[in-house]
Design brief:
Blueprint (H helix, E strand, L loop, with lengths): L2 H17 L17 H4 L3 H4 L4 H5 L5 E8 L1 H11 L4 E3 L3 E3 L4 E7 L8 E4 L2 E5 L6 E7 L5 E7 L2 E2 L13 E3 L4 E4 L1 E2 L2 E2 L9 H4 L9 E8 L32
Parallel strand pairs: 1-6
Antiparallel strand pairs: 1-14, 2-5, 3-4, 4-7, 5-6, 7-11, 8-9, 8-10, 8-14, 12-13
Protein name: Lipoprotein
Organism: Prosthecobacter fluviatilis
């Protein structure tokens, strides 16, 4: 194994360990971008069945995390993160690149100053300021989202989870969230740095979590048996038919 591959492998292991919730990919991971369901099952070439589990999985493909606070507080938390921040004024590429994410002021539509650091998007916002979350699907497949804001599910107002929340993003599409179950999205007053270290499924005030899933109707194939001659070496795509692999 080359040093480059070893480094990427260790980064993936650390990302999964840090998530602490069994997630397939955290925001800071470097694993491959989301692929169609029929490419995700490592046993597909040998057993010839579609990867339906990728379309019905209860574990997110990735979770995009946002931590917000007042500007000075955000800068303090970024320093505590002890990583190289990248200031964002628009959409930020999250995790493995499945989605882009940004936060706007609801009144003016201007992008709020944000810093991507250590896999977390830190957003500068004032208490009671109305905002909206903008998420872009960068894949050619439909996605399903579960959105938790300040510990509450955006749609139901109940305790947030990292489950499928019924929000859909079309292929290459964009979704805008500016209201929760009980009204407009408003920044809360955040005290201390607890939000920075909260990685629970529920979250807490100052934390926004978007769980990303492959939609149940994403592309797949039927139970097609593959001949040995169609299985390429080293785990590459099979040669010859079926055409879906080309």
């Amino acid at each position: 194994m080359t040093s480059g591959n070893a480094g990427r492998t260790m980064a993936w292991i650390k990302a999964v360990a840090a998530a602490g919730t069994g997630l397939l990919a955290s925001c800071g991971s470097s694993i491959a971008p989301l692929r169609p369901a029929w490419q995700q099952d490592p046993n597909l070439f040998h057993q010839g069945f579609p990867a339906y589990q990728a379309q019905t999985a209860t574990t997110p493909h990735m979770v995009a995390r946002v931590v917000y606070a007042e500007p000075e507080h955000v800068r303090h938390m970024v320093e505590r993160q002890d990583d190289v921040p990248e200031t964002q004024r628009g959409l930020a590429r999250m995790g493995d690149g499945t989605v882009d994410l940004g936060v706007q002021d609801a009144a003016s539509g201007k992008w709020l100053v944000s810093h991507l650091c250590g896999g977390i998007l830190f957003v500068e916002g004032l208490p009671s300021q109305a905002y909206r979350i903008v998420l872009k699907n960068r894949t050619p497949m439909p996605l399903e989202l579960g959105a938790g804001v300040d510990g509450k599910d955006v749609k139901t107002g109940k305790a947030a989870t990292l489950g499928r929340g019924g929000l859909r993003v079309e292929p290459r599409g964009t979704i805008v969230l500016d209201h929760a179950a009980h009204g407009p999205l408003l920044f809360k007053k955040v005290e201390g740095d607890a939000a920075l270290f909260d990685t629970s499924a529920q979250g807490m005030p100052g934390v926004i979590q978007l769980a990303v899933f492959l939609a149940s109707d994403a592309p797949s194939i039927g139970p097609e048996k593959l001949r040995a001659s169609q299985i390429a070496p080293f785990g590459l795509f099979p040669v010859g038919r079926p055409e879906q692999y080309r």
